[in-house]
Design brief:
about 300 residues; 14 strands
Amino acid sequence: AVTQNFNTNSYSFWGGHSFNVFGRNAEISKTSHLVVTAGFTNSNYQTKPDITLDPLQYFSSSKLALSTIGISTQKFYQDKYLFRFGNVEDIPYGKLISFTGGFENKNTINRAYFGGRIAYGNYFNFGYLQGNFEAGSFFNNGKSEQSLFKFELNYFTNLFPIGSWKFRQFFKPVLVLGTNRINTTQDRLNLIDVNGIPGFNSAPLTGTKKFLATFQTQSYNQKEWFGFNFSPYINFTLGFLDQGDHIFFSNKMYSQIGVGVLVNNNYLVFNSFQLSFSYYPSLPIEGSNIIKTNVFQNN
């Protein structure tokens, strides 16, 4: 492997303001706002990688200016036994639509950027459901570059009791589709940990399209043992990458199966901690049938 030193000098400015657009007396004015933001980033590479290591000049000085305008409506409802055991929690729901535009100057090329986002979440009879769709792309001489489309759902059921225990089922799928991406590792998707499968090292695996789905069954035990509450859970995460071809779900599926327990005690300085074990049928670097401990964050 060849190493190359480089350093940058960069600065960013960002600002935004929320406007009341429905009057001060209307009920909708308390939850709905017009939001306008703008930002500028200047990145200056004082030492660049050698052209043989970075032939596409990805690591180059650039200027980026973006502005977003959107309308957001948000309310809250209260629930228990969700993320903080028996504490009352405020769960947000509502809708959002926004549009983003701007420009980038890099490698003497000027590109425009346009994107948008729409999101909606609500509490239904069958549970809480929130959906999010985002799309964005640079445009160079009328041609789209580094385009992206993202679809995301977040769902959890109502609380259902079984004896002295309470349960919820969580489900979160994410689909990311990139087109006309730059042929460099820095402009590729992966399945590494926080952006993919917990505890997963997929450094050799990259692609421009990705699908992830996480399932978790969470229990809440109301009975105490010397001030401790134990809440076991089981989760399953699966992921696909296109790995540079046009196949997708036909490629190998990578997965993680985890079991653990969330321990709560309100008298401790850290009132909750967890113990977990994860099983990986296959890892690109470490092999098959791998077991790891405490790699899953129960968030």
